[in-house]
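QA checklist item 7 of 12: single-chain prediction sanity check.
[x] sequence parsed
[x] length recorded as 130
[x] structure emitted
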Amino acid sequence: MSKTLRKYYENVDLTPGQGKGSAVISIGIGTLALLGAFCFVWPELLTTPDFRGFYDEFTLRVALQISIAISFGFGLYCALKHQSLGYGLTGMLLATCAALVGSGQIEAPRIDTRNLYVGLDYFILTLGSL
């Protein structure tokens, strides 16, 4: 396994300023923003009932919009600096999808408790804190 990894990744140029780090940031934050936007659309299925009382909707919307802007900005930087446009465009596409899904027009509905839920909100908060 280590021979295979060395074969592909030993001579990778990691010089700063090429857009590789910004690609990772853009795609990572864009993915988390899209998952967070889905939590706004289907909160009864994707959020943990025990945490719903602690959430402030305005703060979460602002955090979602800031995440979308950061992801799009890093994706744009990566598209301009990196040799391949794919990484930057992927980050910008994820940010655009999150903006469309979690736009300000969607009102978070009042929800009843449910026995079945995914807990995606806790997953997003855990990954975001890393």
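[x] summary fact logged: DSSP finds six helices and no strands in the chain.
[ ] second reviewer sign-off
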